[in-house]
Write a structure and sequence with these properties.
Helix content is 19%, strand content 33%. It is an alpha+beta fold. The strands form three sheets. Strands 4, 6, 7, 8, 9, 10, 12 and 13 form an eight-stranded mixed sheet that branches.
């Protein structure tokens, strides 16, 4: 370990693009220093460091001295005890120990909901957006300026490949790409009042698309039968307690590195990402 690693503790944080300044200000108030920043398409990775607290050597030394004194007192007391204790008393104590009931093992605490591997909690300000794994249920929660809360349970399954029919409609002038998939999307509005999401947008990406700095070349939306493009936009205005289940279609060049993101309420909310 070099001298710099010994002097500093380091932490890495990923935030949605646009939230960098707020995050930096908050960490600086806690004594952290920004040492590295990597801007991605949807998220920014920032590395912070701060000096490690000095070990309280004087406190440990004082406690050690007290321990030595106590050990001496105990030793002297043990040496002065009458070691001619009755064998009968010892046998009685042994018999009582064997006959005494053993305490029942403590019951294991039930796991908290956050420990559920099928739940992806994105409500923490430092880890908003995930990424979640396909098949997990993301817990989305955001409080608006009027103090109303949008709270959603969002489940996005892994992409399912299908063959385009002659009636397929592609939302661009490009010829079809070799891979057509739909994402099973289910959203339940669990808001505590009548609050509903105002604006929803979605985007699929893959390993090739990420090379084009967000221009989404090689990916287009598609509708075919019960598969609809922009189907998840039906979340807008979803009443409290209601559930929406759709198949959202996308046509792309490859499934390598495929991801799906769902943005809610624009800059007033945040984006939840799903990946393999």
């Amino acid at each position: 370990m070099d001298a710099e690693q010994a002097r500093y503790e380091v932490t890495e944080i990923k935030v949605i693009r646009g939230a960098e300044s707020k995050t930096i200000a908050g960490k600086q108030q806690e004594g952290w220093e920004l040492v590295d920043r990597q801007d991605g398409i949807l998220r920014t990775t920032m590395t912070f460091r701060r000096p490690k607290p000095k070990p309280p050597w004087r406190l440990w030394a004082a406690l050690g001295g007290v321990g030595v004194i106590l050990a001496g007192i105990i030793t002297v007391g043990a040496l002065t005890e009458d070691d001619d204790a009755s064998a009968t008393d010892a046998a009685t104590a042994s018999s009582a120990e064997q006959s005494s009931p053993q305490p029942a093992p403590a019951q294991e605490a039930e796991p908290s909901p956050s420990a559920d591997p099928m739940v992806c909690d994105t409500t923490d300000p430092w880890s908003r957006g995930g990424p979640c794994t396909f098949g997990q249920t993301a817990i989305y929660s955001d409080t608006r300026r009027d103090l109303s809360e949008v709270r959603l349970e969002i489940t996005v399954g892994a992409p399912v490949e299908f063959a385009l029919s002659e009636d397929a409609i592609i939302d661009s002038d490009q010829a079809p790409y070799p891979v057509s998939v739909y994402f099973p999307v289910t959203v339940k509005n669990t808001s505590p009042d009548s609050t509903m999401p105002d604006m929803v947008s979605t985007q699929a990406t893959n390993a090739e698309q990420s090379k084009y700095s967000g221009t989404y070349v090689g990916i287009q939306q598609v509708s075919d039968g019960d598969v609809d493009s922009s189907a998840a936009s039906g979340i807008e205005g979803l009443p409290m307690g209601e559930t929406l289940s759709v198949k959202e279609g996308w046509n792309m060049t490859t499934l390598e590195g495929v991801q799906y993101s769902l943005s809610i309420d624009g800059l007033g909310g945040y984006t939840v990402e799903f990946a393999r």
